[in-house]
What does this fold into?
Amino acid sequence: MNEYLNVLWAIKKQAQSYQSDYVRKHIRLVNEASSRSHISCISTSGKNMGYWSLTTAGQQFLNEYGGAL
It folds into this structure.
């Protein structure tokens, strides 16, 4: 789970585009985070942003399991 938390933390620090090397390297965990609604590419207005960013659920997950991040 530590690797998963690291991916969430990295996306929190800097949103990652779909085609970034970071996303390609960690695609399995990016897919998992997306399926858990911890990251999203949809803005609050419902438009595709073109990059992955942390959601409120992802922030709560980091707070609970990732310590004081």
About this structure: Strands lie at 16-17, 39-42, 48-54. The mean pLDDT is 92.
